[in-house]
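Could you help me review a protein record that somebody else here produced? Here is the record exactly as it was handed to me:
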Amino acid sequence: MNFFKKFLDYAKFATGDFEELFSGIEMPPCPKVVATLLKKLNEPDIDIEQIVPILESDASLAAQILKIANSALYGLPGKVTSISKAVSLLGLKEIKNIAVGYAMTKTIKDPCRKGFDIERYWSDTIFRAVFSKKVADFIGVEADEAFSASLLQDIAIPMLMERWFHLYKGVFEKWLQSDEPLHEIEDKILAWNHAQAGAWISKSWQLPDIFTCCIGLHISTIKDVERLGLEKTVVAPVTLSNKISLSFQERKPAEKAVEEAKALGIDEDALEDLIEDSKEMVSSLAEALGIRAS
């Protein structure tokens, strides 16, 4: 099943072409070490011996891989002290996912705009990523892909706030004063939204197609995901995580989130457990990623 084609068909029907929509917006490139890694991982018959030198060439990326490998997210037995061991234990697919997260943390800067809290942004982002991983485990889809794709879902927001605030200011200020979802305000004022912008960034970085799908569809409903035939893919947990983040600090999940979760076979008690388990990992993962979260 070609998930990316399904997403592109949906995107074109709903909003038009990425290149046309964002032709005037320049976004930062993917960090060189990550671009090199992704290119190498796309080659046939790749093995660990070819990947380790690339990872070790960037001390910051190597350190982040070791921190995440030793974090509670994986719960590996014993301490991982070398990149070769981390790659061996985690596998190339998960190393790719960690590298994508590294690219995000290196690219996103605090836009320093009134009303935008970068630490809260990171808290919500990490929470959603962990929650997506746990939901993916629950429904039996690729958990590590769900984690990385969810980490990227709102990548466009701080970039737009930093680089294109003259364009985005009206959207952001209205959102601060409104209960209306951000993407609906964006659609009305700009005729495009941050999910589309994020998908365009993913595509321009040549990330896996499924990441682009997850980012572009994270503002959708589970019913939308079902109509596209993607409910048994990582798109579903990422989409659900977007609804949960809005009630992350509340004792109980919002009613809409409960309804969305039930569509995936997750009852309210199970949902609350997944939320609580995810909250507990936010601080340790923020430290492993080298970012400050509230």
